[in-house]
Design goal:
Elements lengths: L1 H13 L5 H31 L4 H6 L11 H8 L3 H32 L5 H12 L7 H10 L6 H26 L2 H9 L4 H12 L1 H16 L3 H6 L8 H10 L7 H29 L7
Helix pairs in contact: 2-14, 4-14, 5-8, 5-11, 5-13, 6-8, 8-11, 9-10, 11-14, 13-14
Length: 294
């Protein structure tokens, strides 16, 4: 009995109790997170409620509940405002760009991380340099490149630009995942007669699935919310993406904007991003820690 008591007292003494400073840091962090959550959530809830109200109700009582819960604003935004067309263009551009950038980025990161060859380090740092290059400095060269190639004001041209600007981040992020994969798996696959292509697609790529899921989410968010590139390189109204369509919808009627339909269009634009994040949230949380660089 005495030995047990002694062991418990030693264990208690070995624990480091929280100091007043630790409690202060915890309280401050919780307060800041609460304030930040309110700043983010309250405006979105206000937009969501306003999307069910008429313009007259919004201007008369912006913070009250809707008198009648109706989806008329969503129907008007989807059909009359052309959000349906902009949404389809965005899905095509972002979907195609995301598939291409993930495929090309994974292949590039895998080669740079797993194979030693002359110039590999230069290519890797060149990719990193692409992360520091401001987008607005490339607008004019991109404009003439796409114009000379006949891709200006086209969805394929916009897809190519999206892929080019998302590729450095994809390679930078996935490089660490492929770097940490065990080399013994690669050697065992070679002994079994598998070629490099089969090893990559059937073994290495599935093993790096957490990192691929995380970088896919980041790329999706960035490409979905992209505004500067389509505004400068895609001036055909028939090929507008959602960000352009929203800007046009908000400004085309001056002071006679249908605010109810405008808020409904905002909700339609935001919901896909929230859905994608909620679906892949666990993969995102579990993959960031695995991408620690050496």
């Amino acid at each position: 009995m005495t030995a047990v008591t002694t062991d418990e007292s030693v264990a208690t003494e070995s624990r480091s109790p929280w100091t007043g400073g630790d409690r202060a840091v915890e309280a401050t962090s919780h307060a800041l997170l609460t304030i930040w959550s309110i700043i983010v959530i309250v405006p979105f809830l206000w937009v969501l409620l306003s999307s069910f109200k008429t313009t007259k109700e919004i201007l008369a009582s912006p913070f009250s509940l809707p008198a009648h819960w109706s989806f008329d604003n969503y129907v008007n935004a989807w059909t009359d405002a052309g959000i349906r067309h902009f949404f389809l263009n965005t899905v095509i551009v972002v979907g195609a760009a995301l598939v291409l950038v993930m495929l090309l980025g994974a292949m590039c990161a895998y080669v740079l991380a797993r194979f030693a060859f002359r110039g590999a380090l230069f290519i890797y740092y060149a990719m990193l340099a692409g992360l520091t290059f401001p987008i607005f400095l490339a607008i004019v060269p991109l404009f003439f490149i796409l114009k000379n190639g006949g891709l200006l004001n086209t969805l394929p041209g916009l897809i190519m630009v999206y892929v080019a600007f998302a590729l450095p981040f994809t390679v930078f992020f996935l490089y660490a995942f492929f770097k940490t994969l065990p080399h013994e798996v690669y050697e065992a696959a070679l002994i079994d007669g598998a070629g490099d292509w089969r090893i990559f697609f059937q073994i290495m790529l599935p093993m790096a699935r957490p990192g691929i899921a995380a970088v896919a989410i980041f790329n999706f968010l960035g490409l979905w919310n992209q505004f500067l590139l389509p505004v400068a390189l895609n001036t055909d109204p028939n090929r507008y993406v959602l960000t352009q369509g929203m800007a046009e919808f908000a400004s085309q009627a001056g002071y006679a904007v249908d605010f109810g339909a405008l808020f409904a269009a905002v909700v339609i634009t935001v919901v896909p991003v929230l859905v994608v994040y909620v679906i892949f949230q666990r993969r995102l949380e579990g993959s960031v820690s695995q991408g620690t660089f050496r």
